[in-house]
Write the structure tokens for this entry.
Amino acid sequence: MSDVLDFSRRAEIEEEMDGPCSYQELRRCLRHLAIVNRITRAHQHTLRWLERVLPEPHRLNPQRKFRLVDIGCGYGDMLRLIEQWAERRGIQMELVGVDINPNALRAAREATPVGSRIQWVLGDVCTSPETQSVDLVTSCGVFHHLTEPEIVKLLQWMNATARLGWYITDLHRRPEPYYVFDLLMRGPWWQRFIRPDGLRSIRRSFRREDWERMVANAEINPNSASIEVCRPARLCVGHIRVAAAEQISGEPSAPAVWQGQAS
């Protein structure tokens, strides 16, 4: 029992949603995950980061389109929020959601309103033709599903590919969110994967020292990558290129300084 509740190291366990299941069951799981994301405001961290990367709309070239790729887009709820955010601000964005699960992309397409211009891509983000010319790369709630070598490879790709910057939102491996989630997700109305997989996800996620190690292994300058504690129960990792403001507006800018909070 002590090993089950050991948060000092990452648990090596599988999640049910990563295994075989019917399309109907996966779609219901993704819908309920979207509800959990909305309740916990998981996507607000990415929107806040985008506001740091992109200056006020009046400073932007109206002809400039920003291409954003979302890794492991799943149900697509974050991309739909980004699309609405960009429309409100008058920013032109080309949004691409990439996932390796065809049923997840099918569910994302079905949940996306008619008229949306989000592009859904099935495949490996590192090799797909649609993801090789990118301004921004994001990901939310995906990286704890991966091994450290897979994460290091993605960090290297993101850092080499994203012209303006990249941002990862994932869970924070701590006992407090584990026990709170365990209590809140006991209702019978939730899809059956939500509670057990959510608890496994927290145990599979990372702490600051894990991200520091993976960033170093990806040969990314630790002074250029931020590791930020975001409430509730999120640990976010990102990088904004110093030249971003100059590339957007043509005006010289001071180096961006963005320090994450202490964990």
Notes: The longest strand covers residues 162-171. The chain has one domain: 16-249.
